[in-house]
Design brief:
alpha/beta, Rossmann fold, two-stranded antiparallel ribbon, binds adenosine-5'-diphosphate
Length: about 210
């Protein structure tokens, strides 16, 4: 199964991806997580990405395409993958089509998780992550249990200001991927509003 998750920041891609990869036993390839690991490790890629990420801007297509080409060529991705956060621009989507064709494989579906802008800022500013397990929480909607609450962290780009920049970049640069994948007959729209379990059920229905 080769899947892509598209959706505005805070739509619930990471939350839902964790469930889907467990069900299909495929790797979860989150470019945001890969970049945050590079920033933390202080690699050359991390240094280039850090400034753009803090400002809520996209990292350049060249860097992202190289990173993902390398990742989907690894052994564990041969049986499939869930791409979360990539592609985010039409040039990235074109490069992915070329890379998949060179491996003689194709996408099964592209899921768009739809959440309207006025719900996004609350989701983003309340987001917290457990650095030990990677589990995603929300201070109001899904608070961390008492034994985890003391160690949760907040992403540097989860401020209201960076969130608004990311939303603007989503609409301008990423939303053109919706007609792109619709034209390829791969698009599945999923309503991302409601309980996470209900969203998971909608995704399962969409995947058939
Ligand atoms: P994304 O990966 O799309 O940026 P996340 O999965 O990290 O989104 O979710 C963003 C925030 O919203 C997190 O704090 C998460 O706990 C919360 N969240 C996820 N799904 C829902 C939902 N269905 N309803 C309310 N809050 C949610
Ligand atoms: P969110 O979960 O809020 O949608 P991500 O964790 O996917 O955000 O990404 C965080 C940041 O990493 C983005 O704001 C952007 O700066 C950078 N990034 C991640 N994936 C890409 C990509 N495919 N192209 C360009 N920049 C990216």
């Amino acid at each position: 199964m080769r899947l892509i998750f598209i959706g505005p920041p805070g739509a619930g891609k990471g939350t839902q991806a964790a469930r889907i990869v467990e069900r299909f036993e495929i790797p979860h390839i989150s470019t945001g997580d890969m970049l945050r690991a590079a920033v933390k490790a202080g690699t050359p890629l991390g240094k280039l990405a850090d400034i753009a990420m803090k400002a809520g801007q996209l990292v350049t297509d060249d860097l992202m395409i190289g990173l993902v080409q390398e990742r989907i060529g690894q052994d564990d991705a041969k049986k499939g993958f869930l791409l979360d956060g990539f592609p985010r621009t039409v040039p990235q989507a074109d490069a992915l089509q070329t890379a998949l064709a060179s491996h003689n494989v194709a996408l099964d579906a592209v899921l768009v998780l739809e959440v309207q802008d006025d719900l996004i800022v609350d989701r983003i500013t309340g987001r917290r992550t457990d650095p030990e397990t990677g589990a995603i929480y929300h201070m109001t909607f899904n608070p961390p249990p008492a034994d985890v609450a003391g160690r949760v962290t907040q992403r540097k780009d989860d401020t209201e200001e960076a969130c608004r920049a990311r939303l603007e970049s989503y609409h301008r640069q990423t939303s053109p991927l919706v007609p792109f994948y619709e034209g390829l007959g791969l698009l599945k729209r999923v309503d991302g509003v409601g309980k996470p379990d209900d969203v998971t059920a909608r995704i399962q229905t969409a995947l058939g």
